[in-house]
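Researcher: Quick one. two chains, 209 residues in total.
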Amino acid sequence: MNANSPKCSCSCNEESGPPALVYSCSGAADTGEIADRAARLIKAEDKAWMSCLAGIGARASGLLASAAAAPDLIAIDGCPQDCAKKTLELAGFANIRHVRVTDLGYMKGKTPVSEGAVRKVADAAMATLIKN
Amino acid sequence: MKKIQILGTGCAKCQKLAAVADDAAKALGLTYEIEKVTEIERIMGFGVMFTPALVVDGVVKVAGKVPSLEDTKKLLA
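Model:
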């Protein structure tokens, strides 16, 4: 079973599920790409599961139900438009853990996409889970 | 004919959800069919990441828990 296989809520002979679902704005700008790559890095390292923000916007029922069932939701936005967070909120979700790439010292349109930046954003996103 | 699908690999909660859905459909006097979807690939095709899940006429109504009989009746109505 891979990292994104459905998790059984009864814990019957299955590996433990994710602590959160993570959504990225995946915007066109460099900071949007960093947000996207950070979410994918979190998924690749099996720290949380990435889910589809577009599916939330489209009101895809399975993706909405999955978000509702998740222990926590993390939104990673590239810029102050906060599209990922707002998309989740417009779908009715609250108490979203949130990270904004431009709050971490990166300027929209002037930030080369680097492993270091992706790592910093991914770590900041996971750190939101231990904040109140 | 209402189509009810139970998504899950066959664990205790999946079976409980199937039973609750069956009871709710009967209580509502529905004409229905229930299908248990156990294949991971098909479950993921619904966009569901937590099981069990209840699907009614192709729409995922709830995932990751077994709703009460009364709540399930509302989801089926």
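Residues 21-130 of chain A form a domain with the Rossmann fold fold (CATH 3.40.50).
Researcher: Thanks, that's what I needed.
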